[in-house]
Write a structure and sequence with these properties.
heterodimer, A: 261 residues, mainly alpha, B: 330 residues, alpha/beta, Alpha-Beta Plaits, 6-stranded mixed beta sheet, 12 helices, 14 strands, 35% helix
């Protein structure tokens, strides 16, 4: 465990000292501040809009930063050849991969907490302290980010950062609409052709193998002030951990067979 | 009996390239269908057997693309061999206990640029599970040893190539290894830097550490290595003690005369294989010992004064060039 923690700390430190990452946080915070300021000007709906738009911005910016950094997590080590001096040390490849993932998870935690604190603070100023549902929303956003990172890790284990980024983004979009995809049937009943049936089946198949990310978006509950049950949060957490576990095992298998040339 | 520090037995590596190169069933199909662009392979190392003894300095030589770095990567667990096997410090390749006693500097190293040198060495020390006290003591010593004390507050992104090479050597030695593998350790260093590295390698040998190094700088290799192996086109060409490899019978002599005019020297030179004139002296290369006496007499009879007659010993460079240009055995 010690080498994993060492690599995680180094990954976290690298991100914190990275100017691009700092600029990303600053940009995300600036966007959040601007949108919240505009929302607060809307008549009678300011709190609802602030919650709605604020959570959307936190979720989207965190997911995009997670995709960008996730797909280059291992690639950068290979490109800059830093992996050449780490892997010959007495560590397992899985420990290296786990350390990189954990380091990025710590970084994303800081990002979500920073942005969440800004939203929380502004809501507090406008409407008093937000309820438990807001904390639940932040936790679920963070879980979604961790799942997206695991997906990015899988794709980056065998493809280029660009392709991995596209595939991860595609998985994120599909994941948000899994419930729609599962019930999709193209065309009216009397107009269905073998082609529309095949496409519908393919979409449903993709939905079955895509992580269901829709459960991590609880904005409507937050907007109307309805906290979710502890059972739901626990179930979403366990499901998320299972997705992360599956993604990590696939990545570890691919990574263990890889040649570092 | 001398123990083996590092060995390989017919180790080989073929890289699968192309769009489907990594997927064996598709590669097989593509090859059957003659679609070479889709899946093809490159044999980087065709079978190398090495035997490096404990405590020696072993030079691993070869021209660019000979397979040196790929072989080293297989030893370091960075690349999986396609065939063959190897051992490090008596354990199979990949053994973690053996890797805890190993130091490695890759060719053209790049490091975590956000770190300062002491943080950088601390990071590697932690990977070896060294205690905080051990890490600090060792890192401080190595920073002084590689001459980077003046730059200890700068992050590595502000380091020159030579400074990166020095800090790379320090990380390779952080765990006081029993076996050190250096891939081109002199690369990017000025003459002073090269001397420092040579001194460090000699110090390591005095402590009983085995050093396995690849280098293009044959002068340094000849100066520091006990034994060498020459690899060409992924195969071993020569391996052995430098004295043995370079101990060919002396067949040429360098004879220097002064006091000969150019016309006479030209005439005398017709009996030599090569002639040079520098600052009033004429240097002749005589092909064999049998011709030496007659040649010297001729030069003296022509009015010249014999300045020297020296046997020409084969250099490592000559051996290297000869091996590199020799056609591979069928």
């Amino acid at each position: 465990m010690k080498p994993t923690w060492t690599i995680a700390q180094n990954t976290f430190r690298e991100a914190v000292r990275n100017r691009i990452f700092a600029a990303s946080i600053f940009f995300a915070l600036a966007m959040l501040g601007l949108v919240l300021a505009v929302s607060s000007a809307s008549l009678h709906e300011e709190v609802r809009l602030m919650k709605d738009v604020g959570l959307f911005l936190i979720s989207i910016s965190a997911v995009f930063i997670a995709i960008f950094t996730g797909v280059t997590l291992v690639y950068k080590e290979l490109e800059r050849k830093t992996i050449y001096t780490v892997m010959p040390k007495p560590i397992y490849r899985t420990q290296f991969l786990a350390g990189k993932y954990l380091g990025l998870a710590m970084t994303m935690f800081v990002l979500v907490v920073t942005m969440g604190t800004v939203l929380f603070g502004m809501l507090h100023l406008v409407d008093g302290a937000p309820g438990l549902e807001m904390i639940q929303a932040f936790w679920l956003i963070y879980l979604e980010v961790l799942i997206v990172m695991a997906v990015a890790l899988v794709f980056s284990s065998f493809s280029t950062p660009f392709l991995s980024g596209l595939l991860t983004l595609g998985t994120f979009i599909c994941g948000r609409f899994v419930d729609v995809m599962l019930t999709l049937r193209l065309g009216e009943a009397d107009e269905r052709t073998p082609v529309t049936e095949a496409i519908s089946s393919l979409v449903r198949l993709v939905a079955h193998v895509t992580p269901d990310l829709s459960i991590y978006n609880i904005t409507p509950h937050v907007v109307y002030g309805h906290p979710l049950s502890q059972d739901f949060i626990l179930q979403a957490t366990l499901t998320g951990l299972a997705y992360i576990g599956i993604g990590f095992v696939i990545s570890a298998v691919l990574f263990s067979r890889r040649d570092f040339v | 009996m001398t123990q083996t520090a590092l060995s390989t037995d017919d180790i080989a590596k073929t890289f699968n390239l192309g769009f489907l190169g990594a997927l064996r069933p598709f590669k097989f199909l593509a090859q059957r269908m003659q679609l070479k662009g889709i899946a093809h392979s490159v044999e980087a190392v065709k079978g190398i057997s090495l035997d490096v003894k404990v405590g020696e300095i072993f030079g691993f030589l070869g021209p660019n693309g000979a397979g040196k770095t790929t072989t080293i990567k297989m030893l370091m667990g960075l690349v999986h061999p396609t065939r063959g096997s190897g051992t490090l410090l008596g354990a199979p390749l990949g053994d973690r206990a053996a890797r805890a006693r190993l130091g490695f500097l890759p060719e053209h190293p790049y490091f975590y640029e956000h770190l300062k040198p002491l943080e950088f060495l601390d990071f590697y020390g932690r990977l070896f599970r060294m205690t905080a006290r051990e890490r600090k003591k060792r890192a401080e010593y190595l920073i002084d040893r590689v001459g980077l004390r003046h730059a200890v507050d700068r992050p590595l992104r502000k380091y020159s190539k030579g400074m990166i090479q020095r800090v790379g050597i320090a990380q390779a030695l952080i765990n006081e290894p029993d076996l050190v593998v250096f891939d081109e350790p002199m690369s990017g260093l000025d003459p002073m830097g090269r001397k420092d590295v040579r001194d460090i390698i000699f110090e390591l040998r005095e402590k009983g550490t085995t050093v396995f190094l690849s280098s293009h700088i044959l002068q340094d290799v000849e100066m520091i290595c006990d034994r060498v192996a020459i690899v060409v086109d992924g195969r071993m060409r020569s391996q052995g003690a430098l004295d043995t490899l370079l101990d060919d019978p002396v067949e040429r002599f360098e004879v220097v005369f002064s006091g000969l005019d150019d016309e006479t020297a030209t005439l005398v030179g017709t009996h030599a294989v090569d002639t040079r004139a520098i600052a009033g002296r004429h240097t002749f290369i005589v092909e064999s010992e049998n011709d030496l006496d007659a040649f010297v007499r001729m030069g003296l009879d022509a009015g010249g004064h014999l300045t020297s007659a020296t046997p020409i010993r084969q250099s490592l460079e000559a051996l290297f060039v000869a091996e590199a240009s020799r056609e591979a055995a069928p």
